[in-house]
């Protein structure tokens, strides 16, 4: 049995399973670089956790320059299997209510204005508006998000819409 990460307790569980959003580097580390740390094994193997990510996240992982083309079908098959068992849920903008989608689009715009790359802004905004913590293995990104989240315009938007407003609440690690 894999040990339970400390962050597991803070995940929401609206339908019995705990929900966790992931970024493409989580997929890359586990399936491409074959880094099977206890935390990654837990994320991909524990049945009490449902992984949520957008098709964009999967596309970024599968189209990464370090992924040999011959390996892509194997990674795709593994992700498809996880989706078939309900472990992986494709949760992008198509699962958002109109008001939530409007918040998502505006938050992406505001994060970009605060110097966050569009891809990073989209993944982070998705987690924020859905109020699902995001696992991102890149500490450099988390450190870069801190000033963006402290941007007065971003902070005001997050507060007005009662959204997660700090790196501690948004990211798990």
Report on the architecture of this protein:
- This protein has 173 residues and is of the alpha/beta class.
- It has nine helices and five strands, in the order βααβααβααβαααβ.
Give me the side-by-side strand order of the main sheet. 3-2-1-4-5
Overall domain count: 2
Strand count, sense and barrel status of the largest sheet are: 5 strands, parallel
Radius of gyration: 16 Å
Helix content: 40-55%
Q: How many DSSP H or I helices? A: 9
Say how many strands there are. Answer: 5
| Helix/strand order | EHHEHHEHHEHHHE
What is the first-to-last residue Cα distance? 20 Å
Describe the oligomeric state of these chains in a short phrase: single chain
Q: Tell the overall outline.
A: globular
Proportion of beta-strand residues: 5-15%
* Uncertain parts: none
* Helix/sheet category: alpha/beta
Mean pLDDT: 90
Write the layout of secondary structure elements.
Layout: E1 18-22, H1 24-32, H2 38-45, E2 49-53, H3 55-62, H4 72-84, E3 88-90, H5 98-113, H6 118-130, E4 134-135, H7 139-150, H8 152-160, H9 167-170, E5 171-172
Helix pairs in contact: 1-3, 5-6
Please describe the structure with a list of short key phrases separated by commas or semicolons.
173 residues, alpha/beta, 2 domains, five-stranded parallel beta sheet, 53% helix, globular
Short structural summary:
The chain is of the alpha/beta class and 173 residues long. The chain has helices spanning 24-32, 38-45, 55-62, 72-84, 98-113, 118-130, 139-150, 152-160, 167-170; strands at 18-22, 49-53, 88-90, 134-135, 171-172. It is globular, with a radius of gyration of 16 Å.
